[in-house]
Amino acid sequence: MRAAFRPRALRHVTAARLSCASSPRAAPVGSGKRVGAQMAAAGCDGDPGPAQELLVAWNTVSTGLVPPAALGLASSRTSGAVPPKEEELRAAVEVLRGHGLHSVLEEWFVEVLQNDLQANISLEFWNAISQRENCADEPQCLLLLLDAFGLLESRLDPYLRSLELLEKWTRLGLLMGAGAQGLREKVHTTLRGVLFFSTPRTFRDTIQRLYGRFLRVYMQSKRKGEGGTDPELEGDLDSRYARRRYYRLLQSPLCAGCGSDKQRCWCRQALEQFHQLSQVLHRLSLLERVSAEAVTSTLHQVTRERMEDRCRGEYERSFLREFHKWIERVVGWLGKVFLQDGPARPASPEAGNTLRRWRCHVQRFFYRIYASLRIEELFSIIRDFPDSRPAVEDLKYCLERTDQRQQLLLSLKAALETRLLHPGVNTCDIITLYISAIKALRVLDPSMVILEVACEPVRRYLRTREDTVRQIVAGLTGDSDGTGDLAIELSKTDPASLETGQDSEDDSGEPEDWVPDPVDADPGKSSSKRRSSDIISLLVSIYGSKDLFINEYRSLLADRLLHQFSFSPEREIRNVELLKLRFGEAPMHFCEVMLKDMADSRRINANIREEDEKRPAEEQPPFGVYAVILSSEFWPPFKDEKLEVPEDIREALEVYCKKYEKLKAMRTLSWKHTLGLVTMDVELADRTLSVAVTPVQAVVLLYFQDQGEPPDS
């Protein structure tokens, strides 16, 4: 603050030091030495009259603007001198202005304040604070802290009154320093810099503890209505948090605000004393300097605690609206802290913007912490989708206002690899969660970039599982309990065609609705194709070829047709038609022939049975034969297994073959003895069982029939 003063060239200048008569007030000392040097350079040709006038004017101004103790003089109270009035001070400033010394008055004032702060005021303030640091009782601690800042205000009050005079004279043009606003900023910067150049840790902890208490007291006062009910819990007692908090408040003997026994609650006193403290800090322009760090830490701590208490593990409802209401109550508390909601509201535009800045800070912090919480729980949220859709939509809203996409990608990939991609998890469960991830992450990120990046390890791992394709196909046809969503996806009326790779809907859209892909999107992949990909196309793309899925479906269909005589042909025809929409007509032609073979087999069997019924009883076969006649080139290859069947069965099959050759000229049958189903009655000693068994099991039972009864033991 020690700037070199340049003496202004005056009309009457002399090189000799002034020799003046004694003045009625003592000459300035300390920082006034420079001003004395300038005064020595301002004379009037040896005439002591102007010099005497200048010296008197300077003594009047200096002792009128700053406390006498700051100049090393006796206090005006003990000396009996009367402080100069404003008119006298202004007249003295006019004299200084006439001699060109008004330009240094503002810097002299700031320098005296700085010296007094360093030598006296700061020491007194921190001595008072140190005597209160070990006070554990919060009401007493708050009261003593208020006294310490009151002492500081009383010591700085003369400077603040003089600052108003200097600003007034600057506006009137009597001074020509940094301007009224610049002078005030310089004074308050000096004040904050000297007082809080090195703030003790204990002081910061005390301030933070008291502001945390102030917030709890304020929120408790707002939470309670006139009837003693809690508006936050009204209509919400079904939620886990509301019930827990309601019973906790009923059972606790302590006040939820001040933490004291309810019979000795000091919430009202705390609100009043904090308001007084805020007023003192505002008058000293120390409000934000003292409280900003404590307010920030308190808000962060309370927000985290509330979020953990209310939101963790709760995915089925949105919390954004509820927290926005809570944030508005927090902003109301900030209005109390920064005196934005009462008659003591600051008039400066900068102070008027304080509340808006804090509102933005609280909202941004909430979005960031809430997003971090949901990112940490994203695996469970995906597992519970669509019940957890509100949590996904909340996370999407927060991600649009924070820069946490990379955090989400890293966290989700780690969770998938740790909890899902290991041999202890069934393939069906992996596919089920991957389907849930597709649905959930499509809501979270319509561009599908997060799904593409985060779930790439899942796709790689599924390629290593031997039963992945079979599980997917079983899910498509409704034969798997774990992947039933695939059957629903397959039955969509307007699916994406895997044959063309484009969505059947118009994908052009309006130009104004176009949204670019995020920066982490793969530039080598089409944006429209990525956005239009449905669940089935994403599963098929794991292998990059639809032929694998078509061949697997043929095998699955063949197994069902050959081993389940009670199958529903309508269901299988429907599945084939739906798959034709996905994979195209040509790849599904073999499956259509397989279903046609089943229909032809039923018709041929009916014709042969009708002819048999027309014959006499002695010419009818001993048992019925119903054949499934397959077009060998259209069915999957079968294992070449041999089975020696009993003679009577062989004869019955040959008879059936001749009947078929009669119906279908130029065609014959080649029997697959190991395939099919045999219905037979098994007579035991005490009962008869009707069973349906495989041909191999039937042959074994028939060989037992040829054996004689075992001898009695």
TrEMBL record:
<dbReference type="Pfam" id="PF26557">
    <property type="entry name" value="Cullin_AB"/>
</dbReference>
<comment type="similarity">
    <text>Belongs to the cullin family.</text>
</comment>
<feature type="domain" description="Cullin family profile">
    <location>
        <begin position="536"/>
        <end position="713"/>
    </location>
</feature>
<dbReference type="InterPro" id="IPR036317">
    <property type="entry name" value="Cullin_homology_sf"/>
</dbReference>
<dbReference type="GO" id="GO:0007091">
    <property type="term" value="P:metaphase/anaphase transition of mitotic cell cycle"/>
</dbReference>
<dbReference type="GO" id="GO:0005680">
    <property type="term" value="C:anaphase-promoting complex"/>
</dbReference>
<protein>
    <recommendedName>
        <fullName>Cullin family profile domain-containing protein</fullName>
    </recommendedName>
</protein>
<dbReference type="GO" id="GO:0031625">
    <property type="term" value="F:ubiquitin protein ligase binding"/>
</dbReference>
<feature type="region of interest" description="Disordered">
    <location>
        <begin position="484"/>
        <end position="529"/>
    </location>
</feature>
<dbReference type="GO" id="GO:0070979">
    <property type="term" value="P:protein K11-linked ubiquitination"/>
</dbReference>
<keyword id="KW-0833">Ubl conjugation pathway</keyword>
<dbReference type="InterPro" id="IPR016158">
    <property type="entry name" value="Cullin_homology"/>
</dbReference>
<dbReference type="InterPro" id="IPR057975">
    <property type="entry name" value="TPR_ANAPC2"/>
</dbReference>
<dbReference type="Pfam" id="PF25773">
    <property type="entry name" value="TPR_ANAPC2"/>
</dbReference>
<feature type="compositionally biased region" description="Acidic residues">
    <location>
        <begin position="502"/>
        <end position="515"/>
    </location>
</feature>
<dbReference type="InterPro" id="IPR044554">
    <property type="entry name" value="ANAPC2"/>
</dbReference>
<dbReference type="GO" id="GO:0006511">
    <property type="term" value="P:ubiquitin-dependent protein catabolic process"/>
</dbReference>
<dbReference type="InterPro" id="IPR059120">
    <property type="entry name" value="Cullin-like_AB"/>
</dbReference>
